C-alpha cells in the first residue's frame, strides 16, 4: 500500500510539501523503535555458552556473510571500487539480520508460537537481530554514512572514528552502570497498584533521552545510539515495561502507517530502471543472498543438531524475514538517494548509488517476508500428520491425555463449590487434570485505571487494591487445597478482565490458547441464607449465554446449591451422592462422558438414570407427538452405542448404580424429577438432553433460564430441592476449528 500510494502523482506533490516533516517523524520513530528493541534484548547471552537457538543464528549469519562477500563484487558496478569493503560489510550485515519483532508477531498470530519449532525460530530470530544490530552499531564507527561519499576526507576518518568510538563506549558504560540503579529507585518509589508519580516519569524519560543523545554529539547515528542505550537499560521493572508498551502502541497506531507512506515516496518508481537487465540481476542476487544463504546455513547446521531437513528449510525461510529497520536502511543507507542521512545531516545527491538500487532493495526485502504464511502453513500441515489431534469434547478425549479445564469464578463465594468440583473431576492418576482458575472481573472505570498490559499485548495485570485482595483470597484457597491434594492435579491461575460485552470473547481466546477441553462457569445467581436464589448478576448471565454459543470447547454451568457447603470430599469413603440423567442427544452423551470421570472418584456414589419413552402408552395425542417429534436415526444410534459402551465399562463392573425410567410425556418427566428430591447432592445433565423427545415436549414453555436447558432449568428452579446442585453440560459444537491441532505441538 505504501509503495502504491507513495507513487500516485498528486499525492507525491503533497508529500513533497511535508518532506522535512517526514524526515523528523521517520528519524524519531526509528529511534523509538530501536530503543524498545534494545530494551528487549539480553546482552548477557553473548557471554554464555551458545544455546541451540544461538548456534542456529550464528550458522545463518556466517553463511550469509560468506555468500554475500562472494556475490557482492557482482553488484559493485554502481559503487566506488574503493568503498567495496564498506559496502560489502553493510550489505552482508543487512542481509544476515532477522526482524525479530515482525517474525515474533507473525509466528504468534499464526499460532505456532508455543510449538518447539516456533520457540526455536523466535529465539533464533532475536539472537540474530541482536548480533547483527550490534555489528552495525560498532561498524558505523569505522564506516559512517558519509564514508560512501566521493568527497569524503579520508585523512579525518581515523580521528573521527576514535572520537566516535570513545563517545559510544562512554555512553554504553555510563548507561549500564547508572540506569539499573536509577530505574530500581523509581520502581521502589512507585510500587505496583499505584499511579506513577509524574515527576518520576518525566525524570525517567529525561534519563533515557540523555542516554540516547550522548554519542550523537560526536556525529554518531542517533538511531543506533538509541539501540545501544536500550540494550544497556534493564529489561525488568515498571518503567521499562511502561516505555515498551507506550512505544509499541505509538508505533503501531501512528508511526508505521506514516513510515510506509514515506517508504513509497522515497521509492520513486519513475527512477526504477526496469528496462535494464542488470536491475533485475541485482534484485534476484539480493533475494538469492538473503534466502538461499540462510537456508543453506540452517540446513547444514541442522544436520549437525539432528534436525530433519524439511524443518531446517522452514527455519531458514522464516529467519530471512526482514522488517522496518531493514527497509529504513535500504532506503537511507544502501541507495543514498535522499538529501538526508542517518544523522540527519545534508549530503550531496549522487554520492553513491542510484535511485533504482534503493527500490530494488525494498522489493527484495518484500520477498523475504511474503512467503512466511505459506511456510507456517506447511509446518502446520506436517504437524497434523505427526502430532495427535486435540479434541475439544470430553467424549472424544483420549483417556491417556490429561483433562484441561478452565474453571471460572466470580469471587471467593464460588471457591468452595469449585474446589469440590475440581476434586470429583480429578479422575485417575495418571493422567490427572490441569485446571486453570480464571477470575471473571468486570472492567469498570476504577479498575481500568489500574490495568497494565504486558509488552507482548497478551498478558494483563490488575493493580486495583480490592481486586488484588480478592484474587489473593481465591489463590490462597485453591493453593491450600492443592498443597493437601497435589496428586494428579496441576493448578494454574489466569485472568479474564473485560467489559461484559467482550468478556465471552476473551474467555474463548483464553480457552483456545490454553487448549481447554471444558469451561466451567458459575451460575449467575447465588443462593441466599434462606436457600432461595438472589436476582444475580445479569451481566454474567449474558456472558454465560454468549459462551454457550461461541466457546471453542465444551461448556458447563455449575448451579451451586449445597456443593460448596461440603467441607471435604473424602477419598476413602462416600461423601457425595451424584446422579447423571440420560435422555439422548450430544449434550447428554457429553454429560455421560464427564460422569465416567466422576465415577472414578472413591468418595462419590454415582447413579445413572436413563429416561426412556414408554412404548406401551396408548394415548392418541401421544402418538401424534411421536409423529411430530421424530428423533434422527443417527442420533438414536449414537445414543445407544455410547450408552452401551458406558454400561459395559462402568455399570457391569459394579462401579456405579443404574436406574431406568419409562415415561410417557413431559408431565411424567417433571414428576420423576421431583421424586429425586433429597436423594442426590449433585445432578449432571446435558443442556439440550432430549430436546427432540416427547419426554421434554413443552417444558421449555415455562423455562426461567433457557441457558440451563429443560432438565437443568427444572432441577435449579424454585419448586425443586434447595440442596441439589446442578451441572449443565453442553458439548462443543464442531465448526471446523484448526483441525484440533494443539498449539504446543512438537515436530522436531
UniProtKB/TrEMBL annotation:
Principal localization reads membrane
Residue ranges annotated as transmembrane are 14-36, 56-75, 120-142, 162-186, 198-218, 247-267, 279-304, 324-347, 359-380
Q: Where is the Cation/H(+) antiporter C-terminal domain?
A: 575-732
What sequence ranges are listed for the domain Cation/H+ exchanger transmembrane? 1-373
* Keyword Membrane recorded: yes
Instruction: Tell me the ranges covered by the Cation/H(+) antiporter central domain, including all copies.
Output: 434-570
Tell me the domain of life: Eukaryota
As for membrane topology, the entry says: Multi-pass membrane protein
* Matching InterPro entries: Cation/H_exchanger_TM, CHX17_2nd, CHX17_C, CPA2_transporter, Na+/solute_symporter_sf
State its location(s). Membrane
Sorted alphabetically, which keywords does the UniProt record give? Ion transport, Membrane, Potassium, Potassium transport, Transmembrane, Transmembrane helix, Transport
Known PANTHER family for this protein? CATION/H + ANTIPORTER, CATION_H+ EXCHANGER 3
Per the record, the similarity remark reads:
Belongs to the monovalent cation:proton antiporter 2 (CPA2) transporter (TC 2.A.37) family. CHX (TC 2.A.37.4) subfamily.
Report the protein name in the record. Answer: Cation/H+ exchanger domain-containing protein
The species is: Stylosanthes scabra
